[in-house]
Amino acid sequence: MEVAAGSRGRCPVRDLGWMNSASCIGLDPADADVLFFGADDDQQVIEGDSNRHARHRICGACPVRRECEDFAEATHTVEGAWGGVLRRQGRRRRAAGAAS
Question: Which residues partner with 82 through β-bridges?
Answer without folding.
Answer: 85
